[in-house]
Amino acid sequence: MNTVQLKNGRMIGPGQACFIIAEIGINHNGSLDLALKMIEEAKKAGCDAVKFQKRTPDICTPKDQWDKMRDTPWGNMRYIDYRYKVEFNEADYATIDAYCKEHDIIWFASCWDEPSVDFIEKFDPLLYKMASASLTDIPLLQKTQNTGKPLMISTGMSTMDEIVAATKVLSMKDLMIAHSTSSYPCPPTELNLQMIQTLHHMYADTPIGYSGHETGLATTVAAVALGASFVERHFTTDRAMWGSDQAASVEPGGMARLVKDIRDVETAMGDGVKKVYDSEMTARQRLRKV
Q: Which domains occur in the chain, in start order?
């Protein structure tokens, strides 16, 4: 099984500590101050990375939706205007980049269109991720991988044929695949965590991970026990805030518990070799009759 090595030396793959991603996404609602607070909280919780989403609204928003009126934190406005409200500019990302370096946490992004890849490349991220919605956008997949950075692809709302088609046009070098179900929040009956094992069998030399949109933490920990080398959960400071992803997000206290539980599970997995521990010897001597 191959591992992926980021430019800073961090390894992602079997035998390595699970790479834990707090997806800030657009939960910052266009507030740079809130985004910086979320970065700080993710670091405190023990996450390895935070992830943002970058879009060019004119490209990513269907034109028949532009003039639809939406209730937003800024009042009732056209949908296209709202899409611009939640996008950070180059100065904002420069601040994010410096803040993450100051707090020693990795940041990267899911780019939803080709100009957004060029935009994020200005900051030389360590890796990229493709949203599930982009799995069938072959030119975008190829452009992102052509940056030379490791690439995670997410497989929500996708058929097996679509997953195979995407991997056929991509280099398997430095590729990582995340199992996911794209419903927000996702009920346990649709998480289908056994797909992690299925993807392991299909792509034996590729790190397999999990991008979860459920409420609760236990199923994400179970994903790690099933072999997920990286996990991603949407992150927020307050699930009651306005926004489509908030309900499927984890707050700082929950993220800290998730990180601790994942690290405990990793420790508890052991090496599979049966042994008698020193801590068992007293009981062994007292209870064994033969």
A: 4-287 (3.20.20.70)
